[in-house]
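User: Hey, quick favor. My workstation is busy. Could you predict this chain's structure for me?
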Amino acid sequence: MQNASIQTTWNTEHVTLNAKHGTFQTSNSSNLSNFYKLFLPMDYREHLFRPLSLHFVDALVQEVFQNPSDKELIYRLIFDQEIKVAWRAAWACQKISEKYPEWFTNFQFKELAALAISTTHGGLHRGCLSILNNLPIPEDISVEFINTCFDWMVSPKSPIAVQALSMKMLYRICLMIPDFKPELIAYLENIDPGDYSAGFNSTRRNVLNLLINK
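Assistant: No problem, here it is.
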């Protein structure tokens, strides 16, 4: 297939699209939302293959906010076999869940919890935990997930972000299931601060204060 180009004008802005490689050039990169309108419906999977920046993800999320039914398309991509697509989709869904947690179902909470347990990719792991911390916790939350959060929280091999997200999730579970509260307090009180980072210890002190004073 020969390299094909399409040239068009959008609001007096000149845009050149390389149809073979999926790249574009524009005289005004800030007008990204107008560029998206040339592609409706958007091929989100193809989009997530491209090099991303914070601005690029934000623009994609704004597209979903304008077309709420597209949230399901992004969500399903979290389970894509291409790990680059999966963790970037989780990044986008994290931002969506911050504003619209009600767009996610209890079943999707359980799917994300299972994926967080099974994935070996750090970015996807953090993304799943970040989304889960924005969502209501189902009453029938998995005991396996609770136990694994304890493991992630206390393992020195876990990244600081994963430790903190796990601690936050366990605190939220304690608010819903008070029977877990004494166990979490015991875990946090018996941790040797010297084995962990300053960030972990700061989060630990804050969570302990919340648990003891509530």
